[in-house]
Design a protein that fits this description.
About 15% of the residues lie in helices and about 15% in strands. The protein is built from five helices and nine strands, in the order ααβββααββββββα. Helix 1 (about 10-20) packs across helix 3. The protein is globular, with a radius of gyration of 27 Å.
């Protein structure tokens, strides 16, 4: 099914409406006879799809969505205007864009008074930097999500993620060309993201803000010329270890005893 519409004018409420349709078995049977289940890497902006194979899973035989694919699809179909809202493809990316609504360690006493149905909730394990799962708040301390290999779209209680860090975001339609991005221009500036104090980001108002990108580089080995290890590496490069020493070609200026 390539399109989905709703009567809601609010983007998040409309996305929730679209997501809830997959809870209806009659809707799924009529539009997706194969069924719609959790599939790692499955889903596009226009609907469910077959999963993928990587170093974690092989879900090429499963048809449906993974968690972030389901959220991305719901908000893309709900967005209106010349520019459609295209969220990042992974849960960790979706947790770092949009308006910050609430965050903190999940528990039965977590304050959800400012959270509205349709807001996205992402989760990460203590000690981890990346968010591993994302969902849409369904109200009554529960979320609608794609979760569990081979399982259909389900409603899960938030208690399933007690003890994990919750990041709750509210998305909005992309600004029209030439319009200001408003409060969403720097969504990470005040996010604690599990830290003791807010993340400080300094930027020029005229320069669009982008999330910091981690870059990893391996420092080059520094050794003195003639260092034993360096000479050893040179020998290995000139003379492979598999070649016996007596068969190795001697350098032109090599002197031998007579």
């Amino acid at each position: 099914m390539a399109e989905a519409t709703c009567k809601e004018s609010d983007l998040n409420a409309c996305a929730l409406y679209i997501a809830r349709r997959f809870l209806d078995k009659n809707f799924v049977a009529a539009n997706y006879p194969k069924g719609v289940t959790y599939a790692w890497g499955g889903g596009t902006l226009n609907g469910p799809g077959y999963g993928i194979k990587d170093n974690q899973y092989d879900h090429r035989h499963l048809f449906g969505f993974d968690c972030s694919g389901f959220v991305q699809y719901s908000f893309y179909q709900a967005s209106k205007g010349a520019k459609r809202l295209i969220l990042p493809e992974v849960a960790n990316g979706q947790a770092r864009v949009g308006e910050l609504v609430a965050e903190g360690w999940g528990s039965a006493s977590f304050d959800l008074s400012g959270v509205r149905p349709g807001d996205s909730i992402a989760f990460k394990v203590r000690g981890k930097a990346a968010y591993h799962h994302v969902s849409i708040y369904n109200g009554n301390r529960a979320v609608i999500n794609a979760y569990g290999t081979g399982k259909p779209i389900i409603v899960s209680p938030l208690s399933a993620w007690h003890g994990e860090y919750w990041m709750i975001r509210r998305y909005s339609d992309p600004p029209e060309p030439g319009a200001s991005a408003g409060g969403n221009a720097c969504p990470q500036c005040m996010a604690l993201d599990g830290r003791e104090s807010p993340q400080l980001v300094s930027r020029s108002p005229s320069v669009p803000w982008h999330p910091p990108v981690a870059r990893y580089s391996r420092p080059a080995a520094r050794r003195r010329p003639g260092h034993p290890r360096q000479l050893e590496l040179r020998r290995h490069q000139v003379f492979p270890i598999s070649v016996p020493r007596f068969l190795r070609a001697r350098p032109r200026n090599h002197r031998t005893r007579r």
